[in-house]
Amino acid sequence: MKRAYRFIVSIIVVLIALSSFLVGKGFLEIFTSRKFDSWLSDQPQFYTSQMSDETKETFVSVVRSYAQTHKMILITKKTESITEGPRILTVGVLSSPGSEANSFDSFDILGTQVINRQKINELLGHSPESYLGYGMDTNNKIGDLPYVLGSVYFKLDQITPGYNLGNSCAVLGLSPEEFDELVGQISEATGLHKEKFITNYSGSAVEIGLFYYVAGVTFIILSISFCLLTYYNSLQELKKLGVHVMLGWSKSDYVVHHYFFYCALAAGLLPLAFMWTMVNCSGFDNTDSFLLFTCAAAMPAILVVVVSVLISAAPLLTIRPVDAILGRLSQKGLYVLTAIIYALCCVVVFAGSTYMDAPITMYSNLLSTQENWSVYKDWYIVRNHVSQGNFFNGRPMDKSKELFDWYKDHEHDTGVYIAHVNQIGEPTLNAYGVNPAILKPFDVLIASPSYLKEIGVSLTNDQVKKAESGTRIYLVPSSYSEEQKSLLRELVARSDKIFESDIVTPYMQNPSSEFIEYDASGGFFTWSTNIDSPSISTNVVIKVVTSNNMVPKESESLVATGLDNSYIKLSPEAAANLLDSSGVVQLSDDGFGTQFSSIESFIKDYRKSLQELFLLFGVVIVLMFAAITVIQISMISIVQRLNERKIAVECMLGFGIYKQYINIFIIVNLIALVGTLCMIVIGSTLGIIMGCLMLLISNLTISISANRSTMRIVLENLSKE
Length: 721
Description:
By secondary structure, this protein is of the alpha+beta class. The chain has three domains: 24-198, no CATH class; 336-375 and 602-721, no CATH class; 380-570, no CATH class. Helices cover 56% and strands 15% of the residues. The protein contains 25 helices and 23 strands. The strands form five sheets. Strands 12, 13, 14, 15, 16, 17, 20, 21, 22 and 23 form a ten-stranded mixed beta sheet that branches. Strands 1-10-2-3-9-6-7 form a seven-stranded mixed beta sheet. Strand 12 and strand 13 (390-391) form a beta hairpin. Helix 11 (332-372) runs antiparallel to helix 21. The radius of gyration is 34 Å and the shape is flat. The protein starts with a helix and ends with a helix. The model has no long low-confidence stretch (mean pLDDT 83). The chain crosses the membrane at residues 210-232, 259-278, 290-313, 334-356, 613-639, 660-682, 688-706. Keywords: Membrane, Transmembrane, Transmembrane helix.
């Protein structure tokens, strides 16, 4: 039995350590990505997020030309993520002929210089196609770079014609005067105002992946289980402790003897952590930072073992020998500990339930959308954007001109539409200074003439020609009063503003608008995914949009993806003619493209993703309920072990289960009830359900377990008598 127990304890400790290591790996990934983003931020910068691909080519050409006569180095950084996989951190270098990187801050991780001047100089000494680090082209690979296995990989290469620049480029080696001169040349060559590329207009946030959250939850569950297991085991040692003390042992000697195995396990976690780090962090030096990270990754697991030992050793150190032999132990500490552990498990359940409310609402909306959109299930919408066959991890807004140009070339093709609905509610009306009591909330249908023709809205040839020549056409319900129409014009003037953009339409050069009445009594499909919003609305203002009368808010939104946001819609026939076998339309020579998906397929895949999330949540909840059940059964077992004779006597006298285990019932029900009340206040439907379920299961578990084991105790005591 002792060997089996030690084997189980060893397995649990190793699993706790592995989950701790994985969480540490997740934090290392986040730390590395954030440090990479801030690296060289103190150097003069060019920001390319507002540049088109053509402008970027011009930018690189100007910098390359300037570098011919000035000693300088241009360094660009970009982050790419393989779907459900690692991050690829790439550094691109453009240098003056014969120039060397002599003075700049190296990029260090865990005390190892991942990118430094020696490696850049080594790269510059080879052909333009050469690179160091991550990549599949072994012919041009000249060396390796450190990497974190399955998490973060680095690549160092040279900026060549057609190179996909990152969002920023650092300039090294130029004086302030030379940098200003280069800025002027770039502005003149690209036609962009200098503020457009020396001011950062974009940013990004790096978050830990779902996999590491799962590892964290696993760590918590295993830690709670381990603590409970060691505590229950210590209570089983009480009688042995009493016997050993009467034989001359001190309590501290016995505790040291009993928990030496646990201490050995904790000490063994450090070399295990070192081996794990060596395997996962390839190419890193054994620096102080590296060793510190190794210790930090192992420390949570070590602390779990140490804290569990301290908690479980407390009753052994504080009990009197006679009480130990007779099994007499103060139960206050027992109830406090079990209440804390039980409360932690409940917090995880309630927190998870609150988190899952949003996905459940999304799933409900998705089912409603699937039914309401069934007429259009074969139509195609923008799903996502790709780069050379992989998921595009940059800012799609930077590529809006490419998709706009594609739409402009194909807007008159059969089956190519724009259809998007915005809901204008009271907050929006108030924000633009429009009285919602007069101009009540309404829907705005942004639609191409082809879509309006498809749904039966008649436009005259003259109106279509005006829209295609750059005039904004607004169709206003004939039920609107003159005052409402006036407020609508004010709202349009304030909301449909023209601002600087790479996409310039004839309307932006010569703004003109027309408001035309139409009969809206028939109602229009709202393309709404909200279960609380109607799928048909009669209070709709229609914006007739073409590639020539769009404002930036519309033209730059063509890259929007998903059911709610996608502007471009394709009929099945248009999709068959315009898309490749993967549903992708290539938009630029650098491999950037937009992927379309049928509405039916999109909803199916989205449902599958949510179902996988529900499955993951279900597994966690089952584990937590299992842990809660084990805690409750353990509480019953411990109380029975400490009060065998009392329980047997009370049972013979007719005491019920509730009176015998009233403290356990109070702890369990009070914690679950408080959590349920909190969920009611928060408004978490799933949390309320879980709270009620927890109350039901907990009371059933305690009642059934107590009934069965109590009868056994009565029979054992009767046999002794």
